[in-house]
Write a structure and sequence with these properties.
The protein is α/β, with parallel strands linked by helices and 456 residues long. A hairpin with a 5-residue loop joins strand 8 and strand 9. Bound molecules: uridine-diphosphate-N-acetylglucosamine and magnesium ion. Uridine-diphosphate-N-acetylglucosamine is lined by residues 8-11, 51, 73, 76-79, 81-82, 100-102, 136-137, 150, 152, 166-169, 195-197, 223.
């Protein structure tokens, strides 16, 4: 049987107090519903239906994929009504997994277990025991421990309210079962809603076995209704990533103070200090050391790279043994060859820095090539922009650029050339030549200093 997934995401999320639809609020930089979608993608689904309502247009434009189809629920008349909107699209004979877009941390392993029970004669129901079950639907069992029904909090009697096994809302059935049961739902209950949970009693009455499965951890089935719960699940998610990193051989100064908002692959003996944020795709080779409070996005850091505190990297390659920072900002297209060094308050963009070259202090180097072992003095600026176009600066191997120089691009500084401090270079400097453009120093001996004006 093929597998179809229905994700409920039409609810308003009033308690988020947000203009952003609830299911688009991010965990680790990715919309909550995106986590659910990516998890089910690993299960080999034939279709994923997202039932949307509040903020439908925003949800449609944010969550995309060829395997994703949207079903609009114009009025939110209950979870049963929501699934019924997808019913005409479901195949004749498939397994159907029902999930919530605001329960983001559900794991594929749990769903696989649940799906083993979605057969012609049985269905799977994900339940959990909670110390405080308030608000949830309660699982009712008969004397033989068979599940017979789910009763919602608002419809439950005191005896039922004492039950601590609750409905997570996640279940696995067949499309044939849904076609049989959903048309029979009624809204004759305290909330006037079509409850999906009423299918449980229907299953029991027709002799379909209701098999329950529990998640490995209750965080898997926790929903987000407000920003506090969003923050709590963010921490759960981040701690999982931290544990995976430590298991892979990374030392974390504090597993509670790292945020991975993308994919971080780290080799052995990597050290990451507190407060670092990783975004997009980041690769850290053996022995990389990352100082505190660095932000690293889409980067490859070769073996032995050391980043000092407050370094910001975006779309860069550091080949190996590079020292960068503190307070350095390497922007898209920065490529450091091995042993190149970047110091404090240096900004680079679209630049290739050759082996062993140094840009140690207070510089802007953009649209440039810096040759091997070149030394770029403090305060050097590549003037790459004429107000309309960007131009390239080429600095040869072993060149020495004196402090506080402006290199007006397009410009070429030859190999082994020297630029005197304070120069404004507008014409090519030949290999091994010295270029200086600073004004000659003037000196007046025994110059009388101005004296303070007398007030009268
Ligand atoms: C539901 C279950 C309850 C369970 C709880 C777990 C029912 C009747 N009750 O209750 O047994 O313990 O979840 O969290 O199913 N939604 C729609 N359209 C609607 C209504 C809801 O898409 O018309 C979506 C919501 O966006 C949400 C999910 O379905 O993602 C659950 O809806 P919610 O209103 O939170 O259900 P609960 O009353 O909490
Ligand atoms: Mg709810």
């Amino acid at each position: 049987m093929s597998l179809e997934v229905v994700i409920l995401a039409a609810g308003q999320g009033t308690r988020m107090r947000s203009t952003l639809p609830k299911v688009l609020h991010p965990i680790a930089g990715k919309p909550m519903a995106g986590h659910v979608i990516d998890t089910v993608r690993s299960l080999n689904t034939s279709a994923i239906y997202l039932v949307i309502g509040h903020g439908a247009n925003q949800v449609r434009s944010t969550l995309t994929g060829d395997d994703l189809a949207f079903v609009e629920q114009l009025e939110q008349l209950g979870t049963g009504h929501a699934v019924a909107q997808a019913l005409p699209k479901l195949s004749e004979n498939s397994q159907v997994l029902i999930l919530y877009g605001d329960v983001p941390l559900i794991k594929a392993a749990t769903l696989k277990k649940l799906l083993t029970h979605a057969t012609a004669t049985s269905m799977g129901l994900l339940t959990v025991n909670l110390d405080n079950p308030t608000g949830y639907g309660r699982i009712i069992r008969d004397a033989q421990e068979q599940v017979t029904a789910i009763v919602e909090q608002k419809d439950a009697n005191p005896e039922q309210l004492a039950i601590t096994e609750i409905n997570t809302g996640i279940l696995a059935v067949t499309s044939q079962q849904l076609h049989r049961w959903l048309p029979q739902l009624s809204n004759a209950n305290s909330q006037g809603e079509y409850y999906l949970t009423d299918i449980i009693a229907m299953a029991y009455q027709e002799g379909t076995l209701i098999e329950t499965v529990q998640p490995a951890s209750s965080a898997e089935v926790e929903g987000v209704n407000n920003r506090l719960q969003l923050a709590e699940l963010e921490r759960v998610y981040q701690l999982e990533q931290a544990i995976a990193l430590m298991t892979a051989g990374v030392t974390l100064a504090d597993p509670a103070r790292i945020d991975v908002r993308g994919e971080l692959n780290a080799a052995r003996d990597v050290f990451i200090d507190v407060g670092c944020v990783f975004e997009g795709q980041v690769e850290l080779a053996d022995g990389v050391e990352i100082g505190p409070y660095c932000v690293i996005k889409n980067a490859h850091l070769g073996a032995g790279v050391k980043l000092a505190a407050f370094t910001h990297l975006d779309d860069v390659v550091l080949a190996g043994n590079n020292h960068v920072g503190p307070f350095a900002r390497l922007r898209p297209g920065t490529h450091l060859e091995t042993n190149a060094k970047i110091g404090n308050f240096v900004e680079t963009k679209k630049v290739r820095v050759g082996q062993g070259a140094k840009i140690n202090h207070l510089s802007y180097i953009g649209d440039a090539e810096v040759g091997a072992n070149a030394n770029i003095g403090a305060g050097t600026i590549t003037c790459n922009y004429d107000g309309v176009n960007k131009h390239v600066t080429k600095i040869g191997a072993g060149a020495f650029i004196g402090s506080n120089s402006s290199l007006v691009a397009p410009i070429e500084i030859g190999a082994g050339a020297t630029v005197g401090a304070g120069s404004i270079i507008t014409r090519k400097v030949d290999d091994h030549a010295l270029a200086v453009t600073r004004a000659k120093q003037l000196q007046k001996a025994n110059w009388p200093k101005p004296s303070k004006k007398q007030e009268n």
